[in-house]
Amino acid sequence: MKFYCTLFLSVFMLLCYSQKREIPIDTTVVTTHNISIKNTSFSYTATTGTQPVWNKEGNPIATLYYTYYKRANIKDRANRPLVISFNGGPGSASVWMHIAYTGPKVLNIDDEGYPVQPYGVKENPNSILDIADIVYVNPVNTGYSRMIPDKDGKLPKRETFFGINADVKYLAEWINTFISRNNRWESPKYLIGESYGGTRVMGLANELQNMHWMYLNGAILVSPADYKLYNTNQPVYSALNLPYFTAAAWYHKVLPSALQQKDLLTILPEVENYAINTLMPALAKGGFISETEKKSVAKKMAYYSGLSQDAILQNNLEVPTSFFWKELLRDKTGNTIGRLDSRYLGIDKTEAGDSPDFNPELTSWLHSFTPAINYYIKEHLNFKTDVKYNVFGDVHPWDRRNNNVREGLREAMAKNPYLKVLIQSGYYDGATTYFGAKYTMWQVDPSGKLKDRFTFKGYKSGHMMYLRNEDLISANNDIRTFINNSLTKGKAAKY
């Protein structure tokens, strides 16, 4: 009898003291660190935690996990730039740029971006923390960010968060709160977004300006995804892929010798010109193109892409990128190449087929990023929780209707003479291609009156160009230059 009483009491105590696994709605943890950047050592604080998203009634409906890095001993915070950083997906945590690009720590990887053990992080001597404070924001269901149930245990409607316009609306509200809480209204402000984060940033630039009267100095689009482009007519979208095909083929040394012996940056302008002025009009003719012209175009595409003329003709000149990733090395090594970074190689079950079995670059990145971010948050930032860190979270279906973010960016720039844009792309990115990013840049402002406020930078790497150490250095320096050139320095905002 005594045994059963003891057992009952033990179970009762466990039930009483066990905790539900949930993230706190509003909390912060502050730690202090030191770093050396550009041969200058300084201390900084890292504030990590959660900040609520509220509904119209003032009730919390979600909480967003963030990390805010602030350089210490800055007397004039009003002139200190603040960079607000997002990744993409949609559904991706703000992990990639946080611990591999602009933040004070970077992954323990080799110089080309491949995983090495032990997993973890090391100091980033290239971080932009020397010239700007940075906050990394995780949208709902990414990282530790979560929806919050009401008093009856019911979660808010998913459409409140998961769509192009919903995403921009609630994130702008959250940014407003963050700026107010941290007394950063006076500071020059910048948004940086990678991949789908480019779509997000284009929309936020206008939403912050129109609905919160918050005017930015700059928007930085890293390997931007533009769904306006992806949904456009096929001849345009297909033709824009050719320069990427050239870059990937050049990297793998499968171009004709006349091209292969040249530097990539010497070749690409020629291919870009062909894609716009010859290939695009040819594709627009569809099935009514003459056989002579079709064969002529296929021959030139083969020359620029490393594919066979027969393979191009079999696809009626419109070669899917998925086929390219499977086909390029099929007869050379039998490997597939990566989607987001075509430097990476994969091994499929069979060499036959029209598309790869998996994305080798993404599996490599998850290999190194997942253990590193979990370790870093708990051991360096001292944020403890049993809630799972979602590198990718459940955000689908994602509402892509009424996508006017490109026009929103134009409007924001037109109304704000200070606002400038930097676009950074990797030449070996086959998902959000560098030439597609250039095309988006060209299309933002049909008048051409804003073109001097755009800057494009390309790198000999992929979607996450910063994983390659050489590009980590140059890309961060490009951001430094961009920020310096977009600071007002006393100049009035007028045309």
Task: Give the beta-strand count.
Answer: 14
Envelope shape: globular
Mean pLDDT figure: 94
Content-based structural category:
alpha/beta
List the uncertain runs.
1-18
Report, as a whole number of angstroms, the end-to-end distance: 88 Å
**What profile does the largest beta sheet have?**
10 strands, mixed
Nearest-angstrom radius of gyration?
24 Å
Share of β-strand residues? 15-25%
- CATH superfamily descriptor of the largest domain: Alpha/Beta hydrolase fold, catalytic domain
Architecture per CATH nomenclature, i.e. the level-2 architecture of the largest domain = 3-Layer(aba) Sandwich
Q: What would a concise description of this structure say?
A:
With 495 residues, the protein is α/β, with parallel strands linked by helices. It is 37% helix and 17% strand. It has 15 helices and 14 strands.
Structure description:
- With 495 residues, this protein is an alpha/beta fold.
- It has 2 domains: 27-229 and 367-486, Rossmann fold (3-Layer(aba) Sandwich), CATH 3.40.50.1820; 233-361, no CATH class.
- The protein contains 15 helices and 14 strands.
- It has helices spanning 2-17, 164-181, 196-212, 227-230, 234-239, 242-251, 257-260, 264-284, 291-305, 309-314, 321-327, 360-379, 405-415, 434-444, 469-486; strands spanning 27-37, 40-54, 60-71, 82-86, 105-107, 121-123, 133-137, 146-147, 189-194, 218-222, 336-337, 345-346, 420-426, 454-459.
- The strands form 3 sheets. Strands 1, 2, 3, 4, 7, 8, 9, 10, 13 and 14 form a 10-stranded mixed sheet that branches. The protein has a two-stranded antiparallel ribbon with strand order 5-6.
- Strand 9 (189-194), helix 3 (196-212) and strand 10 (218-222) form a beta-alpha-beta unit.
- Mean pLDDT is 94; it is low at 1-18.
